[in-house]
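Table 4 source record.
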Amino acid sequence: MIKSHKTYLTKIIILSAMIFIAYLVLIYSFPNMATWNFLYFFSIFPVVNILFHLSITKQMDNASPHQKFINKYMASTVIKLFLYMIIMLVYVLVIKYQAIQFIIGFFVCYLIYTFFEIYTLMKLNKAKEGGVL
């Protein structure tokens, strides 16, 4: 496994643990503002992000123009967004109880993981251009 992949996996596990702990604190501190059901879906974020990150970094490793990378990144972002919207829609239609809390928690996690993904890809791209990798 490439060193950058190991680093990414370590960081995403740490980030996920921090979010999980923060959410547990939120549930116990403000039980009306959070839902336990969210924890069942929480594992989706790291798994999806790891799969898409590996796919995108494979594209970065190829000696292809930046336009191909940008197209693949934008396509993967749209696919993830639709996947997450489908999950939220199904949840709201099937389990109406605490739907607003679930959607807010889901959206916050989406933003956190998206910012994390952008940060790591920018850092990886900078390292690649600098010849560090």
